[in-house]
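Fig. S4 source data, part A: sequence.
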Amino acid sequence: YCIALVTLDPDSMAGWAKEHGKSGQSYADIVASPEVKAMMTDYVDQLNAQLNRWETVKKFEILDHDLTIESGELTPSLKVKRNVVEENNKSLIDGLYA
């Protein structure tokens, strides 16, 4: 079944945190909050409503970091290196299929 690893824009999340009384918290703490998980669940549900059942995202996880060139997860042209992302998040991915 389909799963997703989600990254959120750090600047947008800083603005969201300020509006929701969480300013000063780290990006990792913000995206780990139940409020952000609920917000993303709503977005995934909206997306899934437009897809065939077999295309829907069954489980997702929000990464506690943004993908970067420095971490090797993005190319210089900002394309995702899927094999590197998969290797760096292997235990998380395995947990989504457990």
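Fig. S4 source data, part B ends here. The radius of gyration is 15 Å.
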